[in-house]
Amino acid sequence: MRIVLVGPPGAGKGTQAAYLAKNLGIPHISTGDLFRANISQGTPLGVEAQSYMKAGQLVPDSVTIGMAEDRMRQADAEGGFLLDGFPRNVAQAEALDAFLKADGIELDAVLDLEVPEDEVVKRIAGRRICRNDSSHVFHVSYNAPKTEGVCDACGGELYQRDDDNEETVRHRLAVYHTETEPIIDYYRAQNLVETISALGKVDEVTAKAMAALKK
């Protein structure tokens, strides 16, 4: 299967992508991983992307598209893939369509993870990270530490990342609504969109996603 996963920040796309890709036996291709791999390997696209990032500029669509196309050409993606974070706008969606059409293949589905905006803010703004180990993550409402501000695992100080504050989260949501959300209508016109609620436990959301894909 060839799937695009869409949803606002805080919808749990990364978590769901990992579970779905494993269940379906296809690679999970995330934009973040693409950038990290290309930059760490010093590929021409990675070098170009890093030059924009160091200058504080947005990386052009052409660079992101190039990275995604290179990854989709790899052997493990021949039988399908799950795209997470790409396409991010309609121009990238059109480029993806052109790339797939050139190979005589097409998308099977676009999964739209739906979460109310206030829930997104609550999920992200409530996160607390351990200063000693960033893999230790807590939440003031959903996974509170035994002692406020203290990591259960190592006793380190818990803090809120700068980009997890409510003002920043609402700005990220505004960018999502303006730039990314239009691809849902773009794909809906192709009868590819399956919208599911991303509320509930991780396994419950995964089950809903798998049921939608079986359609």
Notes on the protein architecture:
The protein has 215 residues and is an alpha/beta fold. It has one domain (2-214): Rossmann fold (3-Layer(aba) Sandwich). The chain has helices spanning 13-24, 31-41, 44-54, 61-72, 90-102, 117-125, 166-180, 182-188, 202-214; strands at residues 2-6, 28-30, 81-84, 109-114, 127-130, 137-139, 158-159, 193-197. The strands form two sheets. Strands 2-3-1-4-8 form a five-stranded parallel beta sheet, sandwiched between helices. The radius of gyration is 18 Å and the shape is globular. The model has no long low-confidence stretch (mean pLDDT 95).
Question: Secondary-structure blueprint of this entry?
Answer:
Elements: E1 2-6, H1 13-24, E2 28-30, H2 31-41, H3 44-54, H4 61-72, E3 81-84, H5 90-102, E4 109-114, H6 117-125, E5 127-130, E6 137-139, E7 158-159, H7 166-180, H8 182-188, E8 193-197, H9 202-214
Parallel strand pairs: 1-3, 1-4, 2-3, 4-8
Antiparallel strand pairs: 5-6, 5-7
Helix pairs in contact: 1-9, 2-3, 2-4, 3-4, 4-5, 6-7
